[in-house]
Amino acid sequence: MSRTIVAPEPAKRRPYAPMLATSGPLPHDAERYAFEFKWDGVRCIFQASSGQVRLFSREGTDITARYPELAKAARDDPRQTFVLDGEIVALDHKGRPSFAVLQQRMHTASPPPSLVSSVPVTYFAFDLLESAGRTLVAKTYEERRRLLEELRFAGPHWLTAPSHRGDGKAVLAATRDQGLEGVVAKALDSPYRPGVRSDQWIKVKNRNEQEFVVGGWTRGQGVRSTTFGALLLGYYRGTGRARRLIYAGRVGTGFDDAATERLETALKPLRRADSPFSAAEVPGRQPARRAAAT
User: By the 8 A CB rule, do 105 and 114 touch?
Assistant: First the structure.
């Protein structure tokens, strides 16, 4: 009696876990770092070998079918063996990365051609983990970056993300001007450490700041029935006689008993009959105690 022996399928290759950055300020010794834009997209490990292309999310999920234009770009390219780390990005009508736009593609397992055409994506490669069968993770960022740039990825659906050595303040300012999320500072001598959150990579986010003033407060309820419930905040717009206090919103959490007592003591003498806000009504307002702006 003969038996048919079925050879097992080749095991699927386990993807690299992306190296992660820590949050912090810009490093003072900027000459030891390269500065990259922080893209508002989806992290992706990109594997290409002998015509086979696979894309993996940060969690290791195979997302190849979601982005057929990226897989096609690799299959059409003669350089067939590499592993990249990068970000999948969708651009808005102003050409800026938009996570809101990308969400239209993120959870569509097999997007129809119409969606691929109307919401195209681009892969921004910023690290090279393998090339021509060689593992590069032990090499420094500076060496890996040089090898990545030699591959010259450029096209409608993938490209090499820019990297700037030295002046981190200027790069961060440029991201702020362009409406980008911030920068990632990467030590030039840092190896690639899969799955590790390393202090050799530092993410620096742009923060929007605004000064607000207290224009009033609402009555408290429950355990805070004897004091205020929420502070009504505003900001000034205009100058001189045209200066107006614009209602911005309310904040009612984060106050302990001591802070509540101090605020109550400071606000009570500032009560006034009319609202300091320029609008006749504060949106969603319950009967409130009004104070002069402080």
Answer: no
Whole-Å CA distances, 6 to 3, 13, 133: 10, 21, 29
Instruction: Yes or no: say if 97 and 39 are a contact pair by the CB < 8 Å rule.
Output: yes
- Count Cβ atoms below 10 Å from residue 94 Cβ, excluding itself: 8
- DSSP code per residue over 146-176: HHHHHH---SSSEEEPPEEES-HHHHHHHHH
Residues marked as catalytic: 38
**Non-local CB neighbours of 14 within 8 Å, separated by 6+ positions:** 60
The continuous run of DSSP H or E covering 264 comes out as helix 257-267
Report the distance separating Cα 17 and Cα 112, nearest Å.
29
Per residue in 226-244, pLDDT (tens digit) is 777 788 888 787 777 778 8
Largest CA distance in the chain: 102
What per-residue confidence (pLDDT) applies to 280? 56
- At 251, is the pLDDT very low, low, confident or very high (cuts 50, 70, 90)? confident
